[in-house]
Design a protein that fits this description.
Elements lengths: L2 E5 L8 E5 L9 E11 L1 H8 L9 E2 L3 E9 L11 E5 L8 E5 L3 E3 L6 H7 L2 H12 L7 E4 L5 H12 L3 E6 L2 H8 L5 E4 L5 H8 L5 E6 L8 H4 L1 E9 L13 H5 L4 E3 L3 H4 L3 H16 L7 E6 L3 H9 L6 E5 L1
Helix pairs in contact: 3-4, 3-10
InterPro entries: ADH-like_C (IPR013149), ADH-like_N (IPR013154), ER (IPR020843), GroES-like_sf (IPR011032), NAD(P)-bd_dom_sf (IPR036291), QOR-like (IPR047618)
Organism: Aurantimonas manganoxydans (strain ATCC BAA-1229 / DSM 21871 / SI85-9A1)
Protein name: Quinone oxidoreductase
Amino acid sequence: MSKAIMVHEVGGPDVMKWEEHDPGQPGEGEVRVRQTAAGVNFIDVYFRTGVYKAPQMPFALGKEGAGVVTAVGAGTDRFKVGDRIAYNGVAGSYAEEVVVAADKAVKIPDTIDDHTAAAIMLKGMTAEYLLRRTFKVGPDTVLLFHAAAGGVGLIAGRWAKHLGATVIGTAGSPEKCELALQNGYDHVINYRDADFVEKVREITDGRKCDVVYDSVGKDTFPGSLDCLKARGLWVSFGQSSGNVPPFDIGILNQKGSLFATRPSLFGYNTSRDELDASAKALFDVVGSGAVKITIGQTYPVAEAAQAHRDLEARKTTGATILTM
């Protein structure tokens, strides 16, 4: 019998149980996958703790993974048995086997190994839509990216520098700041030692940023708004420190006719064409070596609870994966 990390009640990492779980056989438009690796993301913490409501209880944790197709359901001609595929947005990737909707998966090119694919499907595609579609980053862009040493942050730093931007980041330790500097960032602010708003003003000679990418939430609001030039864009795409508190929308006017958006990957890849284009852009930039992927931590899938403890304690850098 196949095993998976199951959650029977919301709570801390201790609610994650490694137990038998049969994903079943693939139905129409589905494939069954023998997993080789799964990515760990803050969205998994949100589901485990109940910040995001799971569709049912119990549920298998995880949203991205990679592996080999072992069975193909009726009406599925996109993949065949033996294909290496990766996916995101499919529940239950912390598992030895999983059934995946074929329209959520892509073939892994020969230039990408399974561990890298599992590490980038959610984080890398998030960086792709943030830098190429939410705000089109280019040589004239000055940007601030919070959590620069995190999984999305390291990918975004290299990618933004590849696009020619001036890239400013924040991180919470000297070691994380140094790591970010090695991954595309021109300037990194240790937010534990300095006021990041003041440092951004200093770095930019008072001109501030065109766009701020903020996955931290409560701890960086409203400071993120104060890092933007007039008519700049605040991109709030996560809340690792807690939810952004309710605020009067008039603050956007007061701070310079600012724009604000709360996007998600699943709102950007709503069609097969969008998914394929995002995957191609990601695989191309990684396969070419322009963006190098940092897998900072690897855990056996049975030890996924420890991976969550380390993630929530901000002990991790780069991508975190689980191996089967």
